[in-house]
Backbone:
């Protein structure tokens, strides 16, 4: 079912000025634009430019230098940037996204470019004391972008929990910028219609408050009441200016991540990537893992290390799966989960007041037993699956991995160290392989290198359990079908669809996720399933897609039991709507200059 990716014309959005194509500008255009003599005489095609850009990228000494080079390229030649990214996605994704984007955020105020607007307009920086002027800020943005390229997708953070790196304040802007690049690269969103936003609401991180080059407001974060009132003003302004805009909440600290989602999920078209996106992508990998583990789903004992937005989001998604797919009653499904946080296993009688998001999974069956850490929890729970969303580097040490292997001698242990970036990962792929006699079913948040089993020479590829497999197609599906809101069953359909995308080679090799090189193809498939489900649930508002799905039903799935299927006709149409960089300059420059 591999779709041929046929894309929309890159020139479909009119620009005020011809796009910068540098040495690809033809002689006639140089004459018309009075650029004769101002550019080297060679007229190149895009592949020659790409080769030069790739050489320059390769010559950078560090990943941060590569990140800076790519940012510059994006700001000066968008088309070439995306040609380079798409042509080398496996190599470049870890630079524009995790892990390097983490370092870039930490250094954001030091590497911020000196370019002037409009080239420097990466998105919106909204200071707390300016939220009453949100309409003016949006108007300024509008004036800086080409006509007809109003944003349709936005990623918003306040920088309060950037990856596993904590509160980075305004420096967190690198994350919306990076996420939106993946929207474009992975799912063909139009880059000119993607809007990164940072809510510059202060920081509680003294390092930045004291940094003379820090570019955000120098104050501590507001109390909850002020935070929610300020976000309300921003979101109202945004949805008034750009009705139907798709909003991704990203890397808010856990209480605010849950709070914003609860407050807005039924009011506007939004979702939280760390709760729902991570839940969805890990469920997809888990579906594949339990097929290989050798233990039926109902007998899994799942130990989470970390009970924040990501941990709880993932576990809730797994519970839904066990209930819907395996017909396990909810209470019984919930009892298959244990959580360790910074104080040990979460129990109802632990003696502390549990944060609201932890209450659902608190154990009531522990009697007097209170495990104080992962080591104790491991012996008490005897898990079949160990999921790390704790931000604790090397939490899965040799002892933990070896014990997981021993405890699962009759089956393959599922071990997912999902914390980002690499410096926060609970273990590496190599460690997980070595200490489990290569039996592990593995996925990590940040990509690890392949591992060659020394005894056999067999090369194993680690799964990357990262929400980048799902937020781009969710955004694409939302842009096309225009659902009124994002429901849990839509997210569930996305998980099912992603788990269905593995091709026969990936399945034969026992992999849990599709290869990143195929991400455009799999994003199209997942977006098609999303659209089918949005129509099935009566959420879709775009008549074209409603009619198309009605004429091309995919399966007998219902809104309560989504199966992630789609029809070839809808898939073909999704592919036609994916943006791609131009292959030749004539696609970008109007014939009459
Ligand atoms: N792979 C992916 O796609 C994604 C990965 N992530 C990653 O997940 C991680 C967590 O994110 P999020 O849930 O939002 O963050 P939080 O900071 O809210 O959660 C961290 C959790 O880890 C717990 N913890 C801290 N120290 C320990 C310890 N020593 N032992 C056990 N648990 C501990 C914390 O405990 P306590 O509650 O007591 O403070 C908390 O429950 C980040 O690294 C992030 O990058 C997030 C989204 C997607
Ligand atoms: C991947 C991601 O969203 C995170 O680590 O927060
Ligand atoms: Mg995140």
Residues:
């Amino acid at each position: 079912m591999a779709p041929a990716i046929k894309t929309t014309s890159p020139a479909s959005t009119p620009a005020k000025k011809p796009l910068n194509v540098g040495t690809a500008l033809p002689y006639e255009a140089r004459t018309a634009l009075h650029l004769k003599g101002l550019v080297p005489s060679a007229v190149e095609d895009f592949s020659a430019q790409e080769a030069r850009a790739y050489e320059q990228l390769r010559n950078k000494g560090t990943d941060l230098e590569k990140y800076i080079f790519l940012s510059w390229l994006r700001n000066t030649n968008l088309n070439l940037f995306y040609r380079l990214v798409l042509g080398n996605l496996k190599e470049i994704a870890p630079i524009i996204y995790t892990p390097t984007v983490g370092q870039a955020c930490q250094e954001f105020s030091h590497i911020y470019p000196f370019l002037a607007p409009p080239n420097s307009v990466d998105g919106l920086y909204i200071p707390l004391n300016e939220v009453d002027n949100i309409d003016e800020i949006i108007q300024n943005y509008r004036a800086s972008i080409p006509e007809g390229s109003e944003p349709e997708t936005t990623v918003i953070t306040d920088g309060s929990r950037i990856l596993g790196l904590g509160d980075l304040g305004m420096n967190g802007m690198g994350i919306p910028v990076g996420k939106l690049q993946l929207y474009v690269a992975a799912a063909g969103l139009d880059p000119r219609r993607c809007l990164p936003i940072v809510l510059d609401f202060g920081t509680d991180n003294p390092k930045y408050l004291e940094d003379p080059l820090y570019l955000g407001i120098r104050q501590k974060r507001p109390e909850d009441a002020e935070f929610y009132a300020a976000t309300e003003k921003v979101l109202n302004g945004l949805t008034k200016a750009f009705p139907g805009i798709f909003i991704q909440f990203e890397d808010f600290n856990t209480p605010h991540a849950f709070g914003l989602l609860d407050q807005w999920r039924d009011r506007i078209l939004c979702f939280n990537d760390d709760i729902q996106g991570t839940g969805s992508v890990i469920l997809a990998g888990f579906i594949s893992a339990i097929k290989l583990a050798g233990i039926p789903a109902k007998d899994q004992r799942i130990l989470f290390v970390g009970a924040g937005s990501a941990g709880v989001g993932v576990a809730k998604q797994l519970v839904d799966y066990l209930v819907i797919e395996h017909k396990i009653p909810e209470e019984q499904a919930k009892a298959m989960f244990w959580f360790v946080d910074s104080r040990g296993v979460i129990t109802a009688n632990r003696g502390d007041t549990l944060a609201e998001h932890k209450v659902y999974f608190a154990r009531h069956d522990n009697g007097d037993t209170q495990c104080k850490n992962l080591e104790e929890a491991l012996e008490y729970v005897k898990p079949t699956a160990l999921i790390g969303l704790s931000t604790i580097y090397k939490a899965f040490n040799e002892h933990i991995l070896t014990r997981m292997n021993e405890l699962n001698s009759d089956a393959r242990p599922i071990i997912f160290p999902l914390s980002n970036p690499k410096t926060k990962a609970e273990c590496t792929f190599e460690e997980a392989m070595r200490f489990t006699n290569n039996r592990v079913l593995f996925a990590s948040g940040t990509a690890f290198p392949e591992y060659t089993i020394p005894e056999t020479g067999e090369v194993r590829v680690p799964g990357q359990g990262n929400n980048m497999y799902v937020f781009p197609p969710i955004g694409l599906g939302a842009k096309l079908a225009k659902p009124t809101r994002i429901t849990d069953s839509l997210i569930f359909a996305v998980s099912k669809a992603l788990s269905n995308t593995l091709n026969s080679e990936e399945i034969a090799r026992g992999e849990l996720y599709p290869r990143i090189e195929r991400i455009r193809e799999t994003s199209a498939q997942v977006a098609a399933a999303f659209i089918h489900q949005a129509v099935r649930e009566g959420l879709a508002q775009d008549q074209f897609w409603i009619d198309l799905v009605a004429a091309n039903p995919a399966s007998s799935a219902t809104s309560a039991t989504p199966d992630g299927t789609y029809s070839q006709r809808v898939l073909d149409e999704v592919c036609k709507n994916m943006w791609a960089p131009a292959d030749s300059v004539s696609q970008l420059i109007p014939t009459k200059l």
Observations:
- The radius of gyration is 24 Å.
